[in-house]
Amino acid sequence: MSKDKSPVYGRRKRGNAFRSFLVVLLSSAAIALAGAGVWQLLDPVDYQPPLEPLTSQSQPEPASEPESSASSQPEAESSAPAQDGPEVQEGEWLASEYFDDALFVGDSITEGIKLYDVMSNVTVLADTGVNLNSLYTKDVVELEDGSVVPILEATQYYNPGKIYLMMGINSMLSDEESFRESYAQVVDTLISQHPDAILYIQSILPVTAEYEQSSGAVADNAKIDRYNEILKDLAEEKGVYYLNVAEVFKDENGCLPTEASPHDGIHFSSSWYRKWFDYLRTHGAE
Known about the structure:
By secondary structure, this protein is α/β, with parallel strands linked by helices. Helix content is 30%, strand content 9%.
């Protein structure tokens, strides 16, 4: 069975006539390319690393960053950062080709990668509303034969070199022990299916202060921080990597800025997806 099963996501003329034609052609191509959302395919010419640090904008003193930061370390000889435990530290800017064999697994936030076409060379298996349990039970991925299966059944048909797992607050309805057990099961499944792949557990992202105060809030940022500590510990136990993506989404109060998610306090726009992938491109393991 083929692995690509999910709906993922110029006679030359003479004189002035030729020159006019060439100008029109090049101009049209440039316009089309600019609107295609394929910045990552032009790397490194079209899109360069951001000049500002990728960590939270609320940190006013770059000199106070941890010593493990790339800014305080000698130049690395490779793209793989030095490791101190499971958390991946900041390293060199990775070319977009690093993600050619990347598989992203998750819920609605991960599904937004397809919506905004932020990194079109990755494979995304995600769906709105899924949690750690329904990854096994909710039929959302259509295979080539027309059948529809759960995400963690579909993952076996792919051959990723890297797997990025992120499950959000929908998976935080259970207590901490149950959350850890369910998350561990998902990690074990992915390791079993793809033992040679690099597996990244990504942190749960923060919510806005307004969401915290709403009557329908599932979790506040203090709870999210506690559950992220569970994920970091789980990554160490399972021998996989932990990505603290949340740090680039937090304001000075540890919340997702209101301007990032003015509507529901959880989901965010394409510019914040760019922040996410800028972070991933400086936090990679070999």
